[in-house]
Amino acid sequence: MSTAGLPMTVPAEGLPSRVRIHEVGPRDGLQNEKSVVPVEVKAEFIHRLVEAGLDTVEATSFVHPKWVPQLADAEELYGGLADLPASAGVRLPVLVPNERGLERALALGAREIAVFGSATESFARANLNRTVDEALEMFAPVVARASESGARVRGYLSMCFGDPWEGPVPAGQVVDVCRRLLDLGCDELSLGDTIGVATAGQVEELLTALNAAGVPDEVLAVHFHDTYGQALANTLTALRHGVTTVDASAGGLGGCPYARSATGNLATEDLVWMLRGLGVETGVDLDRLVATSTWMADRLGRPSPSRTVRALSPTKEQ
Amino acid sequence: MSTAGLPMTVPAEGLPSRVRIHEVGPRDGLQNEKSVVPVEVKAEFIHRLVEAGLDTVEATSFVHPKWVPQLADAEELYGGLADLPASAGVRLPVLVPNERGLERALALGAREIAVFGSATESFARANLNRTVDEALEMFAPVVARASESGARVRGYLSMCFGDPWEGPVPAGQVVDVCRRLLDLGCDELSLGDTIGVATAGQVEELLTALNAAGVPDEVLAVHFHDTYGQALANTLTALRHGVTTVDASAGGLGGCPYARSATGNLATEDLVWMLRGLGVETGVDLDRLVATSTWMADRLGRPSPSRTVRALSPTKEQ
């Protein structure tokens, strides 16, 4: 099939002229792989993503190697990205769980870090072995020290729309933790629908509640998972509301797309297809991005769950 | 994972209170299967869909068996659905390509038929071996005769947003064919994005152009394919515009979801998840629907491409 001239570009009202894509594939996507991906492959993946026009690529996480063996190569990987200069507008944020992780990242010259909190007590306990309050206490010196050193700080917030133990999560509860993360000094918040259950009305409600609490769209990013197929519709809703930063994962990497608890991230390619059709600038070269995700799928030995990658990939039909 | 209370119901402004789902799985979904599905399986599939609360289920197509061997059992299948009474609100539309097909359908008591036109010359030639004008001439006596006999007539229009040979399809061209189908006597039009390339702005533009040409939302249905992952976002856009009838396929049946030219329909389950979250009534019992699609996937020997089915299916994780 020819896709010349497709998608047809027809702008819609009420959308931003440009969207910043926060690419999470190398970190969020690969950290759940069962077999360890070689550091050379990760480095090439990140380089290719930047060459495809993604200017914000989350590179790795400085957690203790015992926690996530996939990330034991954080120093080596990050050190191999020194040729991707911040001066050219490339941003390579890294996750840090605590002060020790922060020092490791800063020592390598990281200019952008992220901490990861939870909107629910159940997930804070499961993921961080802490209460929500204790997690925020842990982040306080991390955010302060990062800010002092001039690094930009993103705060991830998990389970903003639903929780596997607690069910629905009230917007007010999310707003409260968001406010506290901003008060600590976070520059940006990423609202995560970690189990992919949100629908459009809930997205609109939370964003409106955040605005009412003095949190403007400019400091917000949305992070949707496609577990129930809702990620792109929810993203469009957030863009109509005024959000201009969207998290996505090249090829839809993340979780196992063929298992019951599929937790794949929104695929960057599906997002770029939509934004290209809407005339919203992203700076991304879709063909190069698809080629990159196809290459990565070959490395992982399974097809990409991204529908756009499957439609445009040059591999043979099955 | 528990999904008790999920998705959380939060209505959004500007949406209808109820959506009619036009279920196309048994016809549009199964007609592309390589191996013929036994007529008993098709009949059970349709019965299960009705029991799950879908009141409009497109049952089969009265095309010549030489064209589509999968549909050679149309008479036998339709005859086996006589226990699903129109008096209970069940609608079982069937496709008819010409007067001969219409007579076969009417002889079996069909009260709702559909003709299938094309917005582009290339697809009219490929699918019907006719020009757009010739196809409309062929439909004229079919629609007239169906209307005379009291049957409701749906007009399908393919390639409303893009065409594999012609690229982008201008809205004005689609509006023209829509007007002519309505002038023939069609009661409803289904706007098909046959190759799944549409994005939200284009959807909004076409619907607005149709309204301006005197075609109200009430006679329109939208029929999106998920080739580029856009189906649900486009559907939400159409609902916000005012459309209240949506075509979808149980389990996302249709085309081969794992091949390059994946042409899967919007999965009914993903649509129902969204509408449940938005508080929009559909009458569908999602658990029963997922059970039905899981059962059908077992019959076909491959997993459903619907993300919601994969998330909620009771089958073991891989």
TrEMBL record, chains A, B:
Alphabetical keyword list: Lyase, Metal-binding
**Per the database record, which ranges form the Pyruvate carboxyltransferase domain?**
19-290
Q: Which InterPro entries match?
A: Aldolase_TIM (IPR013785), HMGL (IPR043594), PYR_CT (IPR000891)
* Biological process terms in GO annotation: ketone body biosynthetic process; L-leucine catabolic process
The record's section on CDD domains has:
DRE_TIM_HMGL
Reply yes or no: does the keyword Signal apply. Answer: no
Name the NCBIfam families for this protein.
PRK05692.1
Per the similarity annotation, which family is this?
A: Belongs to the HMG-CoA lyase family.
Name of this protein: Hydroxymethylglutaryl-CoA lyase
